[in-house]
Amino acid sequence: xxxxxxxxxxxxxxxxxxxxxxxxxxxxxxxxxxxxxxxxxxxxxxxxxxxxxxxxxxxxxxxxxxxxxxxxxxxxxxxxxxxxxxxxxxxxxxxxxxxxxxxxxxxxxxxxxxxxxxxxxxxxxxxxxxxxxxxxxxxxxxxxxxxxxxxxxxxxxxxxxxxxxxxxxxxxxxxxxxxxxxxxxxxxxxxxxxxxxxxxxxxxxxxxxxxxxxxxxxxxxxxxxxxxxxxxxxxxxxxxxxxxxxxxxxxxxxxxxxxxxxxxxxxxxxxxxxxxxxxxxxxxxxxxxxxxxxxxxxxxxxxxxxxxxxxxxxxxxxxxxxxxxxxxxxxxxxxxxxxxxxxxxxxxxxxxxxxxxxxxxxxxxxxxxxxxxxxxxxxxxxxxxxxxxxxxxxxxxxxxxxxxxxxxxxxxxxxxxxxxxxxxxxxxxxxxxxxxxxxxxxxxxxxxxxxxxxxxxxxxxxxxxxxxxxxxxxxxxxxxxxxxxxxxxxxxxxxxxxxxxxxxxxxxxxxxxxxxxxxxxxxxxxxxxxxxxxxxxxxxxxxxxxxxxxxxxxxxxxxxxxxxxxxxxxxxxxxxxxxxxxxxxxxxxxxxxxxxxxxxxxxxxxxxxxxxxxxxxxxxxxxxxxxxxxxxxxxxxxxxxxxxxxxxxxxxxxxxx
Length: 657
Fold this sequence. Notes:
- Among the domains are: about 10-95, Phosphorylase Kinase, domain 1; about 95-280, Transferase(Phosphotransferase) domain 1 (Transferase(Phosphotransferase), domain 1), CATH 1.10.510; about 300-450, no CATH class.
- It has 23 helices and eleven strands.
- The protein has helices at about 50-65, 100-105, 110-130, 180-185, 190-210, 215-225, 230-235, 245-250, 260-275, 300-310, 315-325, 335-355, 370-385, 390-420, 430-445, 450-480, 485-495, 500-510, 515-550, 560-575, 585-605, 610-625, 630-645; strands at about 10, 10-20, 25-30, 35-45, 80-85, 85-95, 95-100, 135, 145, 150-155, 160.
- Strand 2 and strand 3 form a beta hairpin.
- The relative contact order is 0.07.
């Protein structure tokens, strides 16, 4: 269960959620004594099942034991560890920015940036290696780019190896397959040069946008051990300067690589001096901002701004200019501007807001300009407060709010009718867009101060969401009862829109606006709807598990096996985002059920004869287990898959495809 805002971890008070992992959540927290921000990483007990519980706790304690001794500007600082209701949490540096993984998904990074990235990370590795710590899980997701300068910070020493310690067993294969060094896959163990190999893979990916070893998990493992990657210049000519450096970093035998992080860093420093200086503005990018005029405005300036920006096409840019003028009007000019504000501002803008309001029944509406318009309306109404013109302006605002609320109520009624009349699965993408438009209407009503109308829209929205999720539950129950392949197709399509399903469920978990019996009734509707959905999901998991075991035993059933695996993964992902205490036990039971199915399937696959299909299935199962935070199962599958792949002749790729 997630901690609510204000919850204490030791002396640190939760201020919000920064992110979620497979079995943990990271909060933004503050020390009340200093107001300094920290990150609190806490385990979610209800998602830890069977032997995964021990593996995750071991990993968590290892991260704490190693992290406490680390003090380097390019390594996320770990300050403290504690327990809450018997479960551990870590206090870490609060790092504002994005992950390197997210940055690399957009476009290849400029060579100069990649060189600096490598130099900074090698500085961190040199420090860790000097303390006899090998990271063993270097990958883009474990690097944060801090602040506006995007300075890299190395994170997550959860599977790190300390030379001479008992924290790890000899021959363990740990880490993410695409970045694991050949000697680790061979069972020879990891040392500091294994980290250098992984960093070479990361820099290759950063500068080219491609991984040097790609394909299915089995193909990746084989290529890491036996196939030389193409030089970076084969993907991107301007990356040719990295060809020699990265080729050495990714040599198959550790003795052929750079002997240590310092040597690798010196090669990148030499490379950096060859790259043109103008390729990199500032250190990572420029943060200059335009200056804003603060000169006071007069009533005549406001009249001119109204005429210029509220006549003809109204845009967010023009509304922004108008807001800037309003903000610079001194109170002594309010009366002189009032008549123009009412006649040339409030009335035409109210008409425009009514005509262009986001329509939940029409996809693709633009809400951005409209929201700026609502903010501008509020600014003009505040300017008129206490003046004779305010009463007429307020009447215009009330009329607009009632019009907006009526649109939302009509949408809820129309959606309910569509759900009742159709046997098909609801279009979650279309519905998600509609609710974004409802959110825009609610924001506009908030801005206009229309509390009653806002409550009506929120209530209508809650009932509409409940209708959609009950329809989803009904489809799941129908499939469980009939095993109709057409209904299964509808259910799978629902699960493929997992993020939309999560977003809708999250709306029912939010406390309703208002007080009294109406608010209590809305909360009960949300709770009962989610209980019904979880019950349907649990029934679906039982049936999917039966089908999965049957398909996995069929040599020709690889497509069915993978489709049902994907379905189970989506189900678990959805259920793990339901955070209310009400669902704690249900979620724990569901997690155990899905994990048991994955474990049973793993046993079946590992007992099958070694061929291309079995290796492919094991690889897919391993990737999914890792994504779901089941480290023990992922490790066992990766070790067995590596053993099978290494038993093949070095040049034998036909069986891998």
